[in-house]
Amino acid sequence: MKHVVWDWNGTLLNDNHAVLAAVNGVCAGFGRAELSWVEWQAAYARPMRLSYEQILQRPLDEEEWAQVDKLYHDRYDALLPTCELADGAHDVLRACAAGGRTQSLLSMWFHSRLTPTVEHYGLTQYFTRVDGLPGEVGGGSKADSLIRHLQAQQLDPSDVVLIGDVVDDAEAAHAAGARCVLVTTGAMTLEALQSTGAPVTASITQALQLLDT
Questions:
Q1: Whole-angstrom Cα distance, residue 70 to residue 78?
Q2: pTM confidence score
Q3: pLDDT tens by residue, 132-162
Q4: Hey, which end of the chain has fewer CB within 10 Å, N or C?
């Protein structure tokens, strides 16, 4: 593998507590009881709208979905300063570069929020490209975004591995013709990740080590 595409939330950024608080902000806004982390993991799906329709137990129209998205991101953004990088993130990214691989970052978080946050944590230097989600309402699949991300860098997908934390990462890599390694540090259960057939590790350090074996 000559190039690594890193996921952000739940992979390089340890933000689970902020995610759960934001999800529960949505629950409060719609009159639903709070969820535990295990309950959120069980409900997590892509597109994200399916997750919320499951926990709210009804379909959401476009206006309601926009309300969900705003409730979530207002609460998440307020808690972002309390989030930390994944253990050893700088060391892992330095080691990856030292091993001769190029690296980029692709997130389904809003691009306008992603780029300054990555810079704040001092990670921009490691990446040939940083792409987030355009627009103001999120929640879609990563596949099309990954294909565009690789094309913009003129990368051969067969030379690329995506390291992420959810099933959608594995499905996006498959659609793009790339490989994938998953980590158990984010929003989905070990069993769900293993069901993809992609290698699953407990940390980004182990994910990088797997590439070197």
A1: 12
A2: 0.93
A3: 988 665 556 799 999 999 999 999 999 999 9
A4: C
In the chain, what is the straight-line distance between the N-terminal and C-terminal CA atoms, in Å? 11
Contact 43, 55 (CB under 8 A): yes
The single-letter DSSP state of residue 104 is E
CB atoms within 10 A of CB 86: 20
Amino acid, res. 53: E
Instruction: State the Cα–Cα distance between residues 5 and 146, nearest whole angstrom.
Output: 9
**Residue 20 structure tokens:** 């759960």
Q: Read off the DSSP letter of residue 8.
A: T
Tokens of 27: 């629950």
CA distance 118 to 136: 19
**Residue 78: beta bridge partners?**
none
Is 103:96 a contact under the CB 8 Å cutoff?
Answer: yes
The C-alpha atoms of residue 211 and residue 213 are separated, in whole angstroms, by 6
